Protein backbone atom coordinates (compact mmCIF):
# COMPACT_ATOMS: atom_id res chain seq x y z
CA UNK A 1 0.00 0.00 0.00
CA UNK A 2 2.81 2.36 0.97
CA UNK A 3 4.64 1.60 -2.28
CA UNK A 4 1.54 2.37 -4.33
CA UNK A 5 1.01 5.64 -2.46
CA UNK A 6 4.63 6.58 -3.04
CA UNK A 7 4.30 5.91 -6.79
CA UNK A 8 1.13 8.01 -7.00
CA UNK A 9 2.78 10.84 -5.09
CA UNK A 10 5.89 10.74 -7.29
CA UNK A 11 3.76 10.84 -10.44
CA UNK A 12 1.74 13.77 -9.09
CA UNK A 13 4.87 15.61 -8.00
CA UNK A 14 6.59 15.16 -11.37
CA UNK A 15 3.47 16.35 -13.21
CA UNK A 16 3.00 19.30 -10.85
CA UNK A 17 6.69 20.22 -10.92
CA UNK A 18 6.85 19.95 -14.72
CA UNK A 19 3.82 22.21 -14.97
CA UNK A 20 5.48 24.80 -12.72
CA UNK A 21 8.71 24.63 -14.74
CA UNK A 22 6.80 25.16 -18.00
CA UNK A 23 4.96 28.09 -16.46
CA UNK A 24 8.21 29.63 -15.25
CA UNK A 25 9.80 29.17 -18.68
CA UNK A 26 6.86 30.91 -20.33
CA UNK A 27 7.19 33.80 -17.87
CA UNK A 28 10.96 34.01 -18.45
CA UNK A 29 10.41 34.25 -22.20
CA UNK A 30 7.74 36.93 -21.93
CA UNK A 31 8.73 40.42 -23.05
CA UNK A 32 6.91 43.71 -23.10
CA UNK A 33 6.46 45.36 -26.47
CA UNK A 34 8.19 48.72 -26.37
CA UNK A 35 9.91 51.48 -28.31
CA UNK A 36 13.68 51.64 -28.31
CA UNK A 37 16.55 53.61 -29.77
CA UNK A 38 19.27 51.99 -31.88
CA UNK A 39 21.95 54.35 -33.16
CA UNK A 40 19.74 57.40 -32.62
CA UNK A 41 16.81 55.91 -34.55
CA UNK A 42 13.56 54.90 -32.88
CA UNK A 43 12.09 51.45 -33.50
CA UNK A 44 9.42 49.23 -32.03
CA UNK A 45 10.41 45.87 -30.51
CA UNK A 46 7.93 43.12 -29.84
CA UNK A 47 7.50 39.40 -29.47
CA UNK A 48 6.43 37.86 -32.78
CA UNK A 49 2.76 36.94 -33.05
CA UNK A 50 0.86 34.84 -35.60
CA UNK A 51 -0.25 37.91 -37.64
CA UNK A 52 3.47 38.74 -38.12
CA UNK A 53 4.19 35.51 -40.00
CA UNK A 54 3.49 36.79 -43.55
CA UNK A 55 5.83 39.75 -42.98
CA UNK A 56 8.47 37.50 -41.44
CA UNK A 57 8.37 35.31 -44.54
CA UNK A 58 8.60 38.45 -46.72
CA UNK A 59 11.75 39.57 -44.87
CA UNK A 60 13.21 36.10 -45.30
CA UNK A 61 12.39 36.17 -49.03
CA UNK A 62 14.05 39.57 -49.44
CA UNK A 63 17.18 38.41 -47.64
CA UNK A 64 17.51 35.06 -49.43
CA UNK A 65 16.95 36.20 -53.03
CA UNK A 66 13.33 35.17 -53.24
CA UNK A 67 13.79 31.88 -51.39
CA UNK A 68 12.18 30.97 -48.08
CA UNK A 69 14.26 28.46 -46.08
CA UNK A 70 11.34 28.37 -43.61
CA UNK A 71 7.76 28.61 -44.82
CA UNK A 72 4.82 30.23 -43.04
CA UNK A 73 3.74 26.96 -41.41
CA UNK A 74 7.20 26.39 -39.96
CA UNK A 75 7.20 29.84 -38.37
CA UNK A 76 3.63 29.36 -37.10
CA UNK A 77 4.65 26.09 -35.47
CA UNK A 78 7.56 27.83 -33.77
CA UNK A 79 5.37 30.63 -32.42
CA UNK A 80 3.05 28.08 -30.80
CA UNK A 81 5.89 26.95 -28.54
CA UNK A 82 5.80 29.81 -26.06
CA UNK A 83 7.58 27.83 -23.34
CA UNK A 84 10.82 27.18 -25.23
CA UNK A 85 10.86 29.56 -28.21
CA UNK A 86 11.30 33.31 -28.44
CA UNK A 87 10.94 35.27 -31.67
CA UNK A 88 11.54 39.01 -31.67
CA UNK A 89 10.53 41.47 -34.37
CA UNK A 90 11.63 45.04 -35.00
CA UNK A 91 9.31 47.48 -36.76
CA UNK A 92 9.84 50.92 -38.22
CA UNK A 93 6.77 52.97 -39.15
CA UNK A 94 4.70 49.80 -38.68
CA UNK A 95 6.82 47.86 -41.19
CA UNK A 96 8.48 44.66 -39.96
CA UNK A 97 12.12 45.10 -40.94
CA UNK A 98 13.98 42.52 -38.84
CA UNK A 99 13.38 39.40 -36.79
CA UNK A 100 15.30 36.78 -34.86
CA UNK A 101 14.36 33.53 -33.15
CA UNK A 102 15.85 31.30 -30.49
CA UNK A 103 15.04 27.92 -28.97
CA UNK A 104 15.81 27.17 -25.32
CA UNK A 105 16.63 23.63 -24.21
CA UNK A 106 16.16 23.78 -20.45
CA UNK A 107 17.52 20.29 -19.80
CA UNK A 108 20.70 20.75 -21.83
CA UNK A 109 20.98 24.43 -20.85
CA UNK A 110 21.50 25.28 -24.49
CA UNK A 111 20.04 28.22 -26.40
CA UNK A 112 20.10 27.94 -30.19
CA UNK A 113 19.61 30.84 -32.59
CA UNK A 114 17.22 29.47 -35.19
CA UNK A 115 16.77 32.50 -37.47
CA UNK A 116 17.90 36.06 -37.88
CA UNK A 117 17.20 38.33 -40.83
CA UNK A 118 17.22 42.07 -41.52
CA UNK A 119 15.77 43.67 -44.65
CA UNK A 120 18.63 44.62 -47.02
CA UNK A 121 17.82 48.35 -46.84
CA UNK A 122 18.23 48.25 -43.06
CA UNK A 123 21.34 46.11 -42.82
CA UNK A 124 24.36 47.79 -41.26
CA UNK A 125 22.22 49.85 -38.87
CA UNK A 126 22.84 47.66 -35.83
CA UNK A 127 19.51 45.81 -35.83
CA UNK A 128 21.00 42.33 -36.17
CA UNK A 129 23.51 43.00 -33.41
CA UNK A 130 20.76 44.34 -31.15
CA UNK A 131 18.60 41.24 -31.68
CA UNK A 132 21.52 38.90 -31.07
CA UNK A 133 22.49 40.68 -27.86
CA UNK A 134 18.86 40.62 -26.68
CA UNK A 135 18.64 36.85 -27.18
CA UNK A 136 22.01 36.26 -25.53
CA UNK A 137 20.91 38.33 -22.51
CA UNK A 138 17.70 36.30 -22.30
CA UNK A 139 19.66 33.04 -22.47
CA UNK A 140 22.00 34.21 -19.71
CA UNK A 141 19.02 35.28 -17.58
CA UNK A 142 17.52 31.80 -17.98
CA UNK A 143 20.73 30.09 -16.88
CA UNK A 144 21.74 28.68 -20.24
CA UNK A 145 25.32 27.46 -20.47
CA UNK A 146 25.83 28.47 -24.10
CA UNK A 147 24.27 29.93 -27.23
CA UNK A 148 24.82 28.10 -30.50
CA UNK A 149 24.01 28.75 -34.16
CA UNK A 150 24.78 27.75 -37.73
CA UNK A 151 25.78 30.23 -40.44
CA UNK A 152 26.53 29.77 -44.12
CA UNK A 153 30.23 29.29 -44.70
CA UNK A 154 30.08 32.04 -47.35
CA UNK A 155 28.37 34.57 -45.05
CA UNK A 156 31.49 36.31 -43.76
CA UNK A 157 29.57 39.44 -42.74
CA UNK A 158 27.42 37.49 -40.31
CA UNK A 159 30.41 35.52 -39.05
CA UNK A 160 32.24 38.78 -38.30
CA UNK A 161 29.27 39.96 -36.23
CA UNK A 162 29.11 36.68 -34.34
CA UNK A 163 32.85 36.81 -33.61
CA UNK A 164 32.34 40.35 -32.29
CA UNK A 165 29.71 38.96 -29.90
CA UNK A 166 32.09 36.29 -28.61
CA UNK A 167 31.10 33.32 -30.77
CA UNK A 168 33.77 30.87 -31.85
CA UNK A 169 33.69 28.22 -34.56
CA UNK A 170 33.15 24.71 -33.21
CA UNK A 171 32.75 22.70 -36.41
CA UNK A 172 31.42 22.41 -39.94
CA UNK A 173 28.18 20.80 -41.12
CA UNK A 174 28.78 19.58 -44.67
CA UNK A 175 25.96 20.17 -47.16
CA UNK A 176 23.75 21.52 -44.38
CA UNK A 177 21.57 23.95 -46.31
CA UNK A 178 18.60 22.73 -48.29
CA UNK A 179 18.69 23.46 -51.99
CA UNK A 180 22.30 24.44 -52.69
CA UNK A 181 23.80 22.13 -50.02
CA UNK A 182 26.22 24.79 -48.84
CA UNK A 183 28.24 23.97 -45.73
CA UNK A 184 27.34 25.55 -42.40
CA UNK A 185 29.74 26.81 -39.76
CA UNK A 186 28.80 25.77 -36.22
CA UNK A 187 29.43 28.56 -33.74
CA UNK A 188 29.06 28.85 -29.98
CA UNK A 189 29.46 31.44 -27.24
CA UNK A 190 29.78 30.18 -23.63
CA UNK A 191 27.69 32.00 -21.05
CA UNK A 192 29.17 30.40 -17.93
CA UNK A 193 32.85 31.00 -17.41
CA UNK A 194 35.01 28.01 -16.57
CA UNK A 195 36.45 28.15 -13.03
CA UNK A 196 39.96 29.58 -12.77
CA UNK A 197 42.81 27.49 -11.42
CA UNK A 198 42.68 29.50 -8.18
CA UNK A 199 38.95 29.09 -7.59
CA UNK A 200 39.10 25.37 -8.43
CA UNK A 201 41.44 24.84 -5.46
CA UNK A 202 39.35 26.76 -2.95
Automatic annotation (TrEMBL):
It comes from the Bacteria. SUPFAM superfamilies: Acyl-CoA N-acyltransferases (Nat). One of its GO terms (molecular function) is protein-N-terminal-alanine acetyltransferase activity. Pfam families: Acetyltransf_1 (PF00583). Residues 36-192 form the N-acetyltransferase domain. One of its GO terms (cellular component) is ribosome. Keywords: Acyltransferase, Ribonucleoprotein, Ribosomal protein, Transferase. Its EC number is 2.3.1.266. NCBIfam families: rimI. This is Ribosomal protein S18-alanine N-acetyltransferase. The lineage of its organism: Bacteria, Bacillati, Bacillota, Bacilli, Lactobacillales.
